[in-house]
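Same chain as my last thread, 246 residues:
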Amino acid sequence: MIFAAIADVHGNYAALEAVLADIRKLGIEDIFNLGDCFSGPLDAGPTARLLIDGGIPSVRGNHDRALIEQPFDDMGPWEKTVYPQLSPSDLDWLKALPFEMVFKDVAYCCHGSPKGDLDYWLEQLLPQGVLHLRARAEIEALAAGIEQPLMLCGHTHIARTVQLSDGRLIVNPGSVGCPGWKDDEPFHHQVDAGHGLAAYAVLEETAYGWQVSHRQIPYDTAPMAELARRNGMDRIGNAIASGWQD
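reply #2:
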């Protein structure tokens, strides 16, 4: 069995197009999306057509939830930018997304962690504003009760593979469309991918277990970076162009 995992597109349809083209080039038919589909300073409409019309199975991310659970006036800037771009049927698709899903009986999938879509499963946030690899015992505690040999998550935009003590894997494929972000809760922290490539992962079952291939795909970032800047988010534009917000 072989399939692709994508996450954190954040309305960057140009990056998503590049990733989907690479997946087709590899001859892979099955794709799973780990959420945070549309929110950001970019273009949700074409992104919706690729994800929704493409029939790509998905779970709900925290930014997806923000688009359907809050009144427009209470939304943050990432949601207010794209909410008017989404049709009622697009919003209905978001409302129907599950928090978690088991894909093809082999992969447990969620956006953040099994405990919440705002959680960092594989990373721990230090008071200095740095995300680093979480202790294995803590990662395994969050995986308690999950039986599948493979677990997938997104949210941090950090491409990472973690092997548990029993040999199972947890994989974050990285972000398709947003290689940098910051948050001020619970205190300021920032993630920069260090590249502007569109990230995803290929998962292949072998005789020795699951093989993970992290892929980073080049594409024309200039139009998306410029769109982010026109929408008042220069730092996201910088991240899309180079992987660095500053």
